[in-house]
Design goal:
The complex is a heterodimer.
Chain A lengths: L5 E5 L6 H9 L4 E5 L2 H6 L3 E3 L5 H10 L3 H9 L4 E4 L1 H4 L4 E2 L14 E4 L8 E6 L1 E2 L14 E6 L1 E3 L6 E7 L1 E9 L2 E4 L7 H18 L3
Parallel strand pairs in A: 1-2, 1-3, 3-4, 4-13, 5-6
Antiparallel strand pairs in A: 6-10, 7-9, 8-11, 11-12, 12-13
Chain B lengths: L5 E8 L4 E5 L2 E7 L1 H11 L4 E5 L7 H12 L6 E4 L5 H9 L4 E4 L1 H5 L2 H10 L4 E9 L4 E5 L4 E6 H11 L3 E6 L11 H10 L4 E4 L5 H9 L5 E4 L1 H4 L5 H10 L14
Parallel strand pairs in B: 1-4, 1-12, 4-5, 5-6, 6-7, 7-10, 10-11, 11-12
Antiparallel strand pairs in B: 2-3, 7-8, 8-9
Helix pairs in contact in B: 1-2, 6-7
The chains are: A alpha/beta, B alpha/beta.
């Protein structure tokens, strides 16, 4: 573990930010909050936490001038982990707010889960691993993760590393070079979630610039 | 791949200490909330609920501090509530470290509150708590910690609450609360069949078979209990193993994943 590496959490009012900070603190990982374009441009590792409404998130990031620096960081190879709404924000758009654009760094859209299932999809569910993944390294196939959402990406092409199912199959975890995202909340998913965060930290320790 | 049925210990507090009573009254001290939270997190609870049953404005800062202390112990979701009457009070609870907040009395008095909270924080953060008591025809929703009837049919209220934006219903049977005579299956089943959001059943838990019944016959998505867990009458791990052996999908923990 790289004790000197600091992870910057994008701060825009997400409710789960303190939980993510606590989960990382338990692993002795240092964090700081990044609320300005400058702090995001300077970040060596980013986490985009997220709880709430897609449109509200995108408008807030836009109003604070954070969209371009986040896209730039991803393009520059800065490791980024999106959590829950932070995964959805990576796509082009969401049915939750069709008029608002996403970061569009992953092709595709976010859809509503079908109303034939109880919504929100709330609670602990298992993953179906679809290809080898640094993020899910060492996670047993039957491990449970905590989900709380009504919208999901049904497809992420080659980037999808694990699927879940609630009415329909959806993307539970994706990975593309320095870009990582999970629909579940690793910070709320007990030991399994802690392992996912540890895997991300391990990747950043090995792969970060400088 | 199935959504696991959740087992949720509940900490009823006077703001600062865990208390317990029978059918909402005769309260006595049952320990430190942060210490109990740490224990349940370790033993495999799927979630934790912390309620301020006194819910007076005066000691709100104390309760927020309790939420902070409890949240610090948890790697699982935390729901907190008690007396939340507006968006600002809801925000204070979430900022203190809760993932979801419960509303009860204030939502019955002004149902638009549910819509306002859902618009601000998302439905997944809004839990409608309903204290239901048997009346001649069906069940009625009670307010102010079970002290006062709202005159509102509990089943209708649950349906309306979900439509207005509640992402989950926490249903407590006042008739069974603290009696250890099993969950109220007819009540649970009736509401489960009427709402499309997840349902947490509460009140009356005693034996593992009560939990099996509330999932299989009551169709609850989660089951909540307090005293049997506090008193260690029922271990969480054993309960989950029992449910697993009966074919109920549950999250079994205990496997150490961090090397």
């Amino acid at each position: 573990m790289n004790g000197s590496l600091k992870i910057s959490l994008v701060e825009y009012g997400a409710g789960n930010l303190p939980s993510v900070e606590r989960a990382l603190a338990r692993q002795s990982v240092q964090t700081e909050r990044a609320a300005t374009p400058e702090s995001i441009a300077a970040a060596r590792v980013l986490i985009l936490p997220g709880v709430g409404h897609f449109g509200q998130l995108m408008r807030t990031l836009g109003a604070r001038g954070l969209l371009a620096p986040i896209r730039q960081a991803i393009g520059d190879g800065v490791p980024l982990l999106g959590i829950c709404l932070g995964l959805q924000a990576l796509f082009a758009s969401s049915a939750e707010a069709p008029e608002d654009k996403g970061l569009n760094v992953i092709a595709g859209t976010v859809d509503s889960l079908p109303i034939t299932a109880k919504l929100p999809h709330m609670g602990w569910n298992q993953l179906r691993h679809v290809r080898p993944s640094a993020l899910l390294e060492g996670i047993p196939a039957n491990a449970y993760f905590y989900f709380a959402h009504s919208y999901a990406a049904l497809d992420a092409g080659e980037s999808a590393v694990a699927m879940c199912e609630h009415g329909v199959p959806f993307v539970a975890a994706l990975e593309r070079r320095n870009l990582f995202a999970v629909q579940f909340h690793p910070e709320k998913s007990g030991d399994a979630g802690a392992r996912v965060l540890a895997n991300f930290v391990a990747y950043t320790g090995a792969g970060s610039r400088g | 791949m199935t959504l696991a049925r959740r087992i949720i210990p509940c900490l009823d507090t006077d703001g600062e200490r865990v208390v317990k009573g029978v059918q909402f009254f005769n309260l006595r001290d049952a320990g430190d909330p942060a210490a109990l939270a740490a224990r349940y997190n370790r033993e495999g609870a799927d979630e934790l609920v912390v309620l301020d049953i006194a819910a007076s404005r005066d000691h709100r800062p104390t309760f927020l501090e309790t939420i902070r202390r409890v949240a610090a112990e948890l790697a699982i979701p935390l729901t907190a509530g008690g007396g939340v009457a507006n968006v600002d009070e809801g925000r204070a609870i979430l900022r203190a470290g809760a993932d979801k907040l419960t509303v009860n009395t204030a939502a019955l008095r002004r149902p638009e509150l549910l819509t306002e909270l859902a618009a601000e924080f998302g439905s997944q953060a809004v839990v409608l708590a309903i204290d239901a008591k048997r009346v001649a025809e069906g069940w009625e929703a009670f307010v102010r910690g079970g002290r006062e009837s709202s005159g509102r049919d509990a089943v209708d209220w649950a349906t309306e609450g979900a439509q207005r934006g509640a992402g989950e219903i926490l249903l407590t049977s006042m008739d069974r609360d603290g009696t250890r005579s099993g969950f109220d299956l007819p009540l649970t089943m009736t509401i489960a069949s009427r709402v499309t959001v997840p349902l947490i059943a509460s009140g009356g838990a005693d034996s593992p078979s009560d939990f099996l019944d509330v999932f299989e016959k009551g169709h609850a998505d989660a089951a909540l209990a307090a005293s049997i867990f506090h008193d260690a009458v029922q271990g969480l791990g054993e309960l989950k193993c029992f449910l697993h052996s009966k074919g109920v999908p549950v999250r079994l923990s205990g496997e150490k994943l961090l090397s």
